[in-house]
Design brief:
The complex is a heterodimer.
Chain A lengths: L6 E12 L2 E13 L4 E5 L6 H8 L7 E10 L2 E2 L5 H10 L1 E4 L3 H4 L6 H11 L4 H14 L5 H5 L8 H13 L5 E5 L7 H18 L2 E6 L2 H7 L2 E6 L2 E7 H6 L4 H9 L40 H5 L11 E2 L27 E12 L6 E12 L3 E5 L6 H9 L9 E4 L2 E2 L9 H6 E4 L3 H4 L6 H13 L3 H14 L16 H13 L5 E5 L7 H18 L2 E5 L3 H7 L2 E6 L2 E7 H6 L4 H11 L37 E5 L2 E4 L4 H5 L1
Parallel strand pairs in A: 3-8, 3-9, 6-7, 7-8, 14-19, 14-20, 17-18, 18-19
Antiparallel strand pairs in A: 1-2, 1-4, 4-5, 9-10, 10-11, 12-13, 12-15, 15-16, 20-21, 21-23, 22-23
Helix pairs in contact in A: 4-5, 7-8, 8-22, 16-17, 16-18, 18-19
Chain B lengths: L1 H6 L5 H9 L2 H23 L31 H7 L1 H29 L1 H16 L2 H12 L3 H28 L2 H7 L5 H37 L11 H8 L9 H29 L1
Helix pairs in contact in B: 3-5, 3-12, 5-6, 5-8, 5-10, 6-8, 7-8, 8-10, 10-11, 10-12, 11-12
Classes of the chains: A alpha/beta, B mainly alpha.
Chain lengths: 652, 285
């Protein structure tokens, strides 16, 4: 007896018509999802994973068309259904949760009423809808569901909104649940909670899941089987654990090696990278899609598209699965990492920042004191709203901290207003922004962007400037031919190289890297991290490295600072912060990212007094933590923790 | 969806020109506008008769092989006058539009970039000016200063600038949030450089659209003011002026003295608007 799979996709090809030309985005993709199974589709940007989700729903953009293949949900061919049957299918069988719940929920309708709409479509009598809605909210572990039902979406946090979106998706008890990057916009601890919820509900509702993500760790955690997409091709498929433990396709193999692994740091070895860039979506290719970047590729790969091979449940499209061992090259020698000298490059003394005025005051930073040593990388971690970016902007002088706080560079107190700082002080502090699309002026050429910084900061002009621009571009591994290009002609990784070059244009002493790789794909991230490490070794600069990705922070950082709601809870050597003793919040954060149950529920609020973390702290000392702000405690000479617990308790 | 977004990458200025040329409405619009521009520049060699030559022997002749569009009360050739009539309106309207664009863009840049009190005060002034009907303001200014090409130009230029200022301000507000502006501060650029070299090139798209739309309105306003006698002055063969002097004759069946001037205004305005719509569409592609 063969049971009908929840979703079966056979030979799916999808194209978009752009400016009258059909561009293929998915080509001959096949996979099936059995009943109650969770299937992950992973890939970097532009590989076609979202297109696959929309094609399954028959909801492609207007210029999209299915060029071939067949999609069956619950045994019914989606593209043979008439309008009424398609509506019924979307109403009863499939549900989708999108990346951004803020945009998926209607901002002007109360949560309860939005949920009731789903029940209305399902034909539930009007009298029962409100009750069913509240019941559904309770199922997604929302406490005081009645209150939430009366709220509007903007009154809820991102994690709460995503729970509501999940409740709406599950309200019809769908056969197939499509999750399109459901946690990408959420913080680590919230992400962990939402993923746990999805796991639990999956058993409760017995739904099959199509899980789309670029995050390999999350897919490993959530899915039974996984398919790897590259440039519109499913290059490899198999049970999640087997596939990631022993990948068969060179792309999967190389991609996994790009990720910083626990225990690695910049002094051990540079990260592995994949040469070349992701192909443009829709670009026409002969042979294997990965051939241009594959180290095993030969003439056959460039001419002949490899057919699917391997025995079920594994599938791989590669001519050279037997030669994978050749990819195991020796790790390159690490760049010579200079030992951080003891002298302080930058010092923050009680830097606080309050936004708003009157009753609307928001304390974004609470008296943060920190030291950045010469030649060192200080990792700054914390969730969104923790004040990381505010702290960075205060250091740079883009915003003035509250009176009483001081930023000290090389022993000199910096004026809070950037305009009143000396040229040398301005030169010394530069930044690499998160998003190069926003950071680079889109109407200026690369030569102009970097050259202007040199003119303003170093006073260079003419030929001398041209020479220095070229040598700087060479040191960030950008070819001369990009000099006259404008940013949009460059890929994301190349743009970030330009942004790094600009930060280094004035020979800075401290460079703040604000999430420099979070807008980039995994295969590009590794190269950018290597470049930053290399630049540091050459130029003897100090970094403040802001990131939400703990593995990345661990790889590049000498010391790590943990920020929570504007309060600095812990600063110490990277290894110690990861191994302990740790602040209870740090522990929560680490647990969330490694996939363990985070053990905090509900939301904290900015308390006027006491420890900032007391409401959510699993180790709270009742009576003390909510009233008394803990002092900075040095657990080792170089490791500060702001907590009432004894050092022994923090180690446990 | 990321896939599609990534594909619209190649949209450099050169790409814009190519996209415009594939739009039929842009081609039709620009052919019409180009026709009138050629008339305005080269009418002396194009006209069959001197548009100013009065021949009292042939007044009010209907269209014929000798006078294609007929003759007016003073026996002047209407066809020649319609071609020559493009000259003044196509001098005043574009110059007035250019003036309003320069003033409006500068104002909008200052409002959006400075923000705070400066923006607040300037915005209220802009709102107040916008509340006044252009024709009334123009009448007031032209009667007090006296009607001439220059006053016409200044009046239309300044009355149109608040609208452009508002459009530019909205675009600048979005640009100012971007990190490249912070990056400019971090190399100590002054405000003028940041506004005009960093931000301005990125808001030129909306400025261009607004400018072409305003050009259509400016043509219409010049024609209107000429019609009521406060615009271009006789003996110019200007269209609005011609309609004004001849419309009393329609009742007598002398329709050709008015119809062709009216059609000229209509085609020019429609042509400009077709171009404006195509630019807007191409920018949004």
């Amino acid at each position: 007896m063969t049971e009908v799979p929840a979703l079966s996709v056979q030979g799916l090809s999808v194209g978009y018509t752009v400016k009258g030309v059909l561009q293929h985005v998915l080509k001959d993709v096949s996979f099936t999802i059995g009943r109650g199974e969770a299937f992950g589709l992973v890939g970097e940007s532009g590989c076609g994973k979202s297109t696959a989700a929309y094609a399954v729903l028959r909801y492609l953009a207007r210029n999209g068309s299915v060029e071939g293949g067949e999609i069956r949900i619950d045994g019914r061919d989606v593209y043979q259904l008439d309008a009424a049957a398609l509506r019924a299918l979307r109403r009863e069988k499939v549900a989708v949760v999108y990346q951004d719940p803020g945009r998926a929920l209607n901002p002007s309708i109360r949560i309860g009423d939005q949920l009731a709409e789903v029940f209305e479509l399902l034909g539930v009598p009007a009298a029962d809808r409100a009750q069913r809605s509240i019941g559904m909210l309770e199922k997604v572990r929302i406490k005081n569901a009645a209150v939430v039902a009366r709220s509007y979406p903007h009154q809820l946090s991102g994690g709460m909104q995503q729970r509501v979106a999940i409740a709406m998706a599950l309200a019809s008890s769908p056969t197939l649940l499509i999750l399109d990057e459901p946690t990408t916009g959420l913080d680590a601890t919230v992400e962990a909670e939402v993923l746990d919820l999805i796991q639990a509900l999956r058993r409760e509702f017995d739904a099959s899941i199509l899980f789309i993500s670029h995050n390999l760790a999350i897919v490993t955690r959530m899915c039974d089987r996984v398919g790897v997409l590259y440039s519109g091709r499913l290059v490899e498929e198999g049970p999640t654990r087997d596939l990631f433990a022993a990948p068969c396709h060179p792309y999967t193999t190389e991609l996994l090696r790009c990720l910083p692994r626990p225990g690695m740091d910049k002094a051990t070895a540079p990260l592995a990278t994949i040469p070349g860039t992701l192909p443009e979506p829709g670009s026409v290719m002969q042979g294997c899609v990965f051939a241009a970047r594959c180290r095993l590729a030969d003439d056959r790969c460039r001419a002949e598209d490899p057919p699917p091979e391997g025995t079920a449940p594994r599938m791989v499209r590669c001519h050279h699965t037997d030669r994978l061992a050749e990819l195991e090259t020796e790790a390159e020698a690490p760049v010579h990492v200079r030992k951080a000298a003891g002298a302080a490059a930058l010092e923050l003394r009680k830097v606080a920042k309050t936004f708003g005025h009157g009753d609307q005051k928001v304390r974004a930073l609470r008296e943060v004191s920190l030291t950045l040593n010469k030649g060192e990388t200080l990792g700054l971690v914390g969730e969104s709203g923790s004040g990381k970016t505010t702290l960075a902007r205060a250091m740079l002088g883009l915003i003035a901290p509250d009176a009483g706080g001081e930023v000290v560079l090389d022993g000199q107190v910096l004026h809070p207003d950037l305009k009143r700082r000396s040229l040398d002080q301005v030169k010394a502090l530069q930044i690499v922004f998160q998003n190069p699309d926003s950071a680079l002026n889109r109407s200026h050429s690369i030569a102009r962007i970097i050259g202007r910084s040199m003119t303003r900061l170093l006073g260079l002009r003419g030929a001398a400037r041209g020479e220095k621009v070229k040598s700087l571009l060479a040191s960030v591994r950008l070819a001369d031919r990009f000099l006259d290009a404008v940013p949009k002609q460059l890929s994301g990784g190349l743009k970030q190289r330009v942004a790094i070059a600009r930060a280094f244009a004035g020979d800075p002493k401290v460079v703040i890297c604000d999430e420099p790789t979070s807008a980039l794909d995994v295969s590009v991230q590794a190269a950018i991290l290597n470049l930053l490490v290399e630049m540091q070794a050459q130029q003897d600069v100090s970094y403040v490295f802001i990131s939400h990705d703990l593995e990345v922070v661990r790889y590049v950082s000498d010391r790590i600072a943990v920020l929570y709601m504007g309060e600095l809870l812990e600063v110490g050597p990277a290894a110690e912060v990861f191994a302990g003793p740790q602040h209870p919040y740090t522990r929560t954060l680490l647990a969330a990212s490694s996939g363990e149950a985070p053990g905090i529920t509900g939301a904290g609020g900015p308390q006027a007094q006491g420890c900032i973390f007391h409401a959510l702290c699993p180790a709270r000392i009742d009576g003390r933590c909510e009233t008394e702000r803990p002092a900075e405690k040095m657990v080792t000479p170089d490791h500060m923790i702001r907590c009432h617990l004894e050092a022994e308790a923090l180690r446990a | 969806m990321t896939d599609i977004a990534a594909q619209s990458r190649a949209s450099a200025p050169r790409g814009l020109a190519r996209r415009l040329l594939t739009r039929p409405s842009f081609l039709i619009g620009s052919i019409v506008v180009l026709f009138w521009v050629v008339c305005a520049l080269f009418w002396p060699v194009l006209v069959p008769y001197d548009p100013f030559y009065t021949d009292l022997m042939v007044p009010l002749k209907p269209p014929s092989a000798t006078h294609w569009f007929g003759t007016d009360q003073l026996g002047r050739d209407v066809f020649s006058r319609v071609l020559a009539g493009a000259r003044d309106i196509l001098t005043v309207a574009p110059l007035a539009t250019l003036l309003s664009t320069v003033v409006g863009t500068t104002l909008g840049l200052i409002m959006g970039y400075a923000g705070g009190l400066v923006d607040e005060v300037l915005s209220r002034i802009v709102d107040a000016v916008l509340a006044l009907p252009v024709v009334i303001v123009a009448l007031l200014a032209l009667t007090s200063i006296g009607a001439s090409m220059w006053t016409l130009l200044l009046v239309i230029g300044f009355s149109f600038s608040p609208i452009i200022a508002r459009t530019v301000r909205a675009s600048v507000l979005a640009e100012r949030q971007l990190d490249y502006v912070a990056a400019a501060r971090l190399r100590r650029e002054n405000h003028l450089y940041t506004m005009f070299v960093e931000i301005l090139p990125n808001v030129l798209g909306p400025v261009m659209v607004e400018m072409t739309i305003r050009l259509g309105y400016a043509i219409f306003t010049v024609a209107t003011l000429s019609f009521i006698g406060f615009g271009i002055q006789p003996p110019s063969p200007d269209w609005g002026l011609s309609i004004s002097t001849n419309y009393g004759l329609i009742g007598g069946g002398y329709w050709w003295t008015v119809l062709f001037d009216g059609l000229a205004i209509a085609t020019l305005v429609v042509g400009v608007n077709l171009v404006a719509d195509s630019i807007q569409g191409a920018l949004n592609d």
